[in-house]
Amino acid sequence: MGNDGVHYQNLALARPTTQPSILIETAFLTDKGNLRLLMSAAGRERFAQAIALGIERFYRDAALGRAGR
């Protein structure tokens, strides 16, 4: 089994930018439980709702001057 820790690479999509950006890795396709979630409508909905909530919180916090906390 490989290391599931943080990996640093010079990827174009991960370089510093002046625009808000996000890279989302929802699950490991090699994990049967994760794959089951991705293959089900309910699982995809859970991922979508969690992502939407995170984006909503980011913009709400930015509007309130709490960005980066």
UniProtKB/TrEMBL annotation:
Pfam families reported for this sequence: Amidase_3
Signal sequence annotation: none
GO molecular function, one term: N-acetylmuramoyl-L-alanine amidase activity
Residue stretches making up the MurNAc-LAA domain: 3-56
InterPro entries with a match to the protein in the record: MurNAc-LAA_cat
GO biological process: peptidoglycan catabolic process
Name under which the protein is recorded: N-acetylmuramoyl-L-alanine amidase-related protein, amiA
Protein source organism: Deinococcus aerius
